[in-house]
User: Fold these one by one.
Assistant:
Number 1:
Amino acid sequence: MRPGHPFETSELDELRADQRRALRLIPVDVFLEHAPAVGPDVDNVAPVDRPMIETSLRTEAKGLLRELTSLLNGWRHYTQLETLDAFYQSNRAAAEQLDVRRQTTFFDQLEMAGTAHREAEMATPRVEDAPALRRLLFLLVWADGLSDYRDPRFASASAASAVPRERDERIIQVPAPPARRPSADDDDATELLAPADLP
């Protein structure tokens, strides 16, 4: 909110908060599959006008949120477990080293949440819900882009994807087998030798 600004109002701030909470209910895999990877180009939009466009996008998103209320509420518990599990996995080693389990039950609760998350089944959107979900994500991701906010799951996914690629490259770099000196038993004794094998 900016006092005196024609569009940057407390109502817009509240709408942002409500819709970002709703967006966070979507599990990571579903979010990354359906959300647009590229946000809006705002360079040619005057900063004073961006909240007006953002408000238009968020107003349209309201109807889709009502349409998808049941699906989003179905994801609520799963996403909470998913978030707690991710935090536990990232901090488990440090917690064990500091022996915080003797000081608090928090990490015991996180461990139980992680187990529950791995055993839980994530509700999948129905085929008929998928187009509405994609439209909702487009509207909200672009609305966030107009307010210079980007969902942190995009950055987390980019950081995580860099590690497997490096590991995969190491895996596929299999050294070539050593050259073999031809023997009299070979049908074709024309196999090439490495220079070190030459007499």
Number 2:
Amino acid sequence: MKKVLLIILSAFLLYGYLGQINLKSLLTILSGSLFTLFVSKLRLKYLYFAKYVVVALSLLMSLVLPFFPNLFEVPIVPHAVATISVCSILLFLGCCFMDERGILKSCLPLIVVYLSSAVNLFSVGKLPLIKPLCLAGIAYFYTLGSTKRLACLILFAVFLGIFLWMGDFNVFGERPSLSQSQKVFLFFASFCLFSLSFFLFVRTKDENPAILLFFFGMLSVVFDVILLTGLGFGCGLFKEKNILATILIISAGPIMKRETELI
């Protein structure tokens, strides 16, 4: 029942972003559902393995790609860089331990991951994708009571905002034209998914990576929906449907396991 509910809500959310029913959108929803089911069959230990691999790739790209600008001319490279950068933040926060182990051990890795992702997204012209991830991270650490990480992420967001303002970057994009049905699907699906993730988080009250990953992923989606529908910021996930589908696959897949498998 839980799998069916998650797949239906995820399909509603994808439809809200896609805005139309055609062969391409149906294939996107179908493939996203199949990949989510595939991820649900994997053991949770692979989340930690994926975390280190994806974070390492993101760090490597932020160090190497500025010296090879010709790579960006390959059509698939910007999308791959943006997807890996977003997933590095998603997996790092979802699979990190919440104990306060000193300012360096608690905050330095967090800032490095966010900074490398911001550099990568800036390099491929997709820096607005960092907005919902920053807001979600702040709400995430506030909910978890991780004050040191919360303070560091707020400072990072402030400095990033000052940098964007001084550089006169257009991080808001054109106001998208959304139909009434799109708005209904976006609000309904995103807040239902977030409510489910918050319920699971409050009920378990532990550091289970599947639940934390689901909680942070749905926070990111909710903030993007608020920025999109409420404030009209059209440069987030609205133009990156594949990244949205990846977030849903990584976040919702592990939570589909049975209760005994989530421990």
